[in-house]
Amino acid sequence: MYAKSRNKSNKGTVQVKNSHGRLRLVFSYPVITEDGEIKSKRFYFSTGEEDTPLGQKLAATIQRDIDYGEFDASLDKYKPAASLSTVTPIAPTPETPPQPGLSALWEKYSEFKEPQISQSTYAVDYRRYRNHIKKLPTDDLRDAN
C-alpha cells in the first residue's frame, strides 16, 4: 500500500552526515577492479571541517566531480591542505659586537703593559705610537693593512 521511506540517497550522490559536529561524506562511485570489472565502491570521507556552509562546499565539489567524471578515487584532491607548512628557519646572523677601534685597542694594550715596563718607556715610546696611530687615515680594524 504505502511505499517504505528509505534513508538511502540516489546512486552517485554525496550524502552529508554530521558526525560529532564534523562533516562526513558518504557516497558510491564506480571503480574498475583488478579483474577489469566495474563495481560500485562505497566511500566514507571525514573532512575534518565543521558542519557549516563553507564545510559543505567540499560535498558540492565531490558531487560536481562525480557528475562530470572528474572524481579522484584516491581522495587526495579533496583532502585539506595543511594550513601550516614546515619551513626551514633562517639561521639568524649572529650580531657581531662592535669592534673597538685601533686607538682603543692601543690604549688597552698600553694599560696592560704599563706595570711591566719602565715609566720612561711608557711615557716616551708608547706616546709616540699613540700619536702615530691617531695620524692614520682610519681607525677601523677592517680597513687596516
Description:
By secondary structure, this protein is an alpha+beta fold. It has 2 domains: 15-78, no CATH class; 102-143. It is 31% helix and 20% strand. It has helices at residues 53-68, 102-113, 119-135, and strands at 15-19, 22-32, 38-50. Residues 1-6 have low confidence and may be disordered.
What key phrases describe this protein's structure?
single chain; 145 residues; three-stranded antiparallel β-sheet; 2 domains; 3 helices
In short:
The protein is built from 3 helices and 3 strands. By secondary structure, it is of the alpha+beta class. The longest helix has 17 residues, at 119-135.
Shape annotation: rod-shaped
Number of distinct beta strands? 3
Radius of gyration, whole Å: 40 Å
User: Helical content, roughly?
Assistant: 25-40%
Topology at a glance:
Elements: E1 15-19, E2 22-32, E3 38-50, H1 53-68, H2 102-113, H3 119-135
Helix pairs in contact: 2-3
